[in-house]
Amino acid sequence: MSVPHIGLYYFGALSLVLVGIYGVLVKKNLLKILISLSIVETGVNLLLISVGYITGRSAPILSEGIGPKQAVDPIPQALVLTAIVIGVATTAMALSVAITLYEKYGTLNIEEIRRLRG
Amino acid sequence: MVSVLKRSLAIITLLIIGYWLAQGLAGVPFGQDRMLVGKYYLENVKAQTGAVNAVTAIVVNYRGFDTLGEVTVLFIASTGVGALLWRRKKRRTAKTEGSVVLRTGSELLFPFILMFGTYIFIHGHLTPGGGFPGGATIATAFLILYMAFVDYEIPHRLFEPLEGLAGMGYVLVGLIGLAIGSYFLFDWIWQTWHWGAANLGRLFSGGFIPIIYTLIGLKVGTELSGIVDSMLTEEVRE
């Protein structure tokens, strides 16, 4: 088992994903779980952006001095633009489910909700 | 004790997942040129779409149909939030008014936040941003008003028709493309009439990208404000 060599940006994005998964696994408060899911999402977005980065190049906005040869890959950025919006939408959905659960059970602790339901 | 066990189990799982992901990423060196389709987009974006921002050209022009689907997902999510939080009679039930700083600041900043959001979505084909961030900025302005004043509500009569009209406008622009050109979401303004070919990189260029991004900005702004509204109002019992 050798330690894989990855760039610092990959490491940061990967750490965000792992921190988020830790929160999902360990936390009991529904809101904290949702926040952890958002952190996972941020990490994945960051990972996609950093995969598209090319050393020494600029943002893919073609202006003076930045031609097609001086710009980074625009496709991951377009994908992430989509992913952020969908992330906002799904987070809003999940939060409204959490609001409904709180109104019904009076708690956001998932273990208690599980116990009350049965 | 159980929680310690659970925590250590979670950490071991994470180490395995992290190692596995890192091993995969080690084969993708950072900062190298791996463009395939991106190269085509970058080389042809000015001639084919009239926009200088390649990202928005891809989102709105090359993959406009995807973006229509994305707008639909956002619409379904906002409808879902409305359906989940639907009550017979809803009103603001907040009791604590915002502080003096928040109230004064929100009143002062509100028009400027709206203006900045509009700036972001109108200049989508020139600068980073576009309809989605611009719409989110506009929704933020309304969120601040909700936090500052206990009885503020968005103008529902204006926002709900506007949301629908903006969505329909997007489809309409696509259908005009179908009528003039050969396919849905054909860029008729740029490809057929070449409007704005003289001022590439200025505001009046980019074919239908500014039009569609304005519609998306309005739609996202009203939709997210609607989500904020349905989350912050509560049922009142008479």
Strand-helix topology:
The complex is a heterodimer of chains A (118) and B (238).
Chain A: H1 8-26, H2 30-51, H3 74-105, H4 110-117
Chain B: H1 2-26, H2 37-49, H3 54-62, H4 64-84, E1 90-92, H5 100-122, H6 131-148, H7 156-180, H8 188-191, H9 209-232, E2 233-235
Antiparallel strand pairs in B: 1-2
Helix pairs in contact in B: 2-3, 3-4, 4-9, 5-6, 5-9, 6-9, 7-9
Could you give a quick summary of the protein structure above?
The complex is a heterodimer of chains A (118) and B (238). By secondary structure, chain A is an all-alpha fold.
Q: Would you mind describing this structure in some detail?
A:
The complex is a heterodimer of chains A (118) and B (238). Chain A has 118 residues and is an all-alpha fold. Chain A is 69% helix and 0% strand. With 238 residues, chain B is mainly alpha-helical. Chain B is built from nine helices and two strands. In chain B, strands 1-2 form a two-stranded antiparallel sheet. The mean pLDDT of chain B is 89. The interface between A and B is large, with 49 and 61 residues.
Amount of beta strand of chain A: under 5%
CATH architecture of chain A: Orthogonal Bundle
Number of spatially distinct domains of chain B = 1
Tally of helical runs of chain A: 4
Cα shape of chain B:
globular
| Low-confidence spans of chain B | none
Number of strands of chain A: 0
CATH fold-level name of chain A:
Helix Hairpins
Number of helices of chain B: 9
Structural class of chain B: mainly alpha
Biggest sheet features of chain B = 2 strands, antiparallel
Helix content of chain A: 55-70%
SSE string of chain A = HHHH
Q: Which terms would index this structure?
A:
heterodimer; A: 118 residues; mainly alpha; Helix Hairpins; 0% strand; B: 238 residues; two-stranded antiparallel sheet; 9 helices; globular
